[in-house]
Design goal:
Order of helices and strands: HHHHHH
Number of strands: 0
Number of helices: 6
Distance between the termini: 33 Å
Structural class: mainly alpha
Strand content: under 5%
Shape: globular
């Protein structure tokens, strides 16, 4: 059973890494630096709700480390790690109170938490409190992206439930 779990987590980390690397090749969505869809987070949100905290933390850590190595952007690791950790903690807390049809909400809150963690690290590193002015734009864009990735993750969880023989509640049937 351990090998099956490790294989599943490695596959999900690989899928998230591929999505991350493909997204790096896309042109920026806005002239504001740092704003992106974060499509690899579909896998993270899915893992939070389908697998739990330990598996998701491993998948996230693997994606962050390998993404840093493959992209060559080593300075981004501390920002990504801080944002990812705060996001993961927020989503794990919300997992306890949200129904499976509300996964998208955890993703939206997680996106805002991610941006807050990144700005906190940026302020600590640069000693520039003025970066806080950038936070509202980041949070607004992050929440929009979080809604999209959350809806995708919710659909993925629902599909996995069906494939695994678990029936979806009536509210979730499409």
């Amino acid at each position: 059973m351990r090998i099956r779990r490790l294989t599943r987590d490695a596959m999900l980390a690989g899928v998230a890494l591929i999505i991350f690397l493909v997204e790096l090749q896309l042109p920026p969505l806005t002239p504001i630096p740092g704003i992106k869809l974060g499509l690899a987070n579909i896998i993270t949100v899915y893992a939070v709700f389908a697998l739990g905290g330990a598996d998701t933390a491993g998948i996230l850590a693997c994606r962050l480390l390998l993404g840093t190595i493959f992209s060559g952007n080593f300075s981004a690791l501390m920002y990504s790690a801080a944002g990812g950790l705060v996001c993961l903690l927020a989503q794990l807390l919300l997992r306890r109170v949200l129904a499976r049809r509300q996964i998208w909400a955890a993703s939206v809150v997680g996106a805002a938490a991610h941006n807050t963690g990144q700005i906190a690290v940026a302020i600590a590193v640069t000693q520039t409190p003025g970066l806080l002015a950038y936070l509202p734009a980041l949070i607004a864009a992050g929440m929009a992206a979080g809604l999209f990735t959350g809806l995708c993750a919710q659909a993925l969880v629902r599909r996995a439930d069906i494939l695994n023989g678990r029936k979806s509640p009536p509210e979730e049937k499409s």
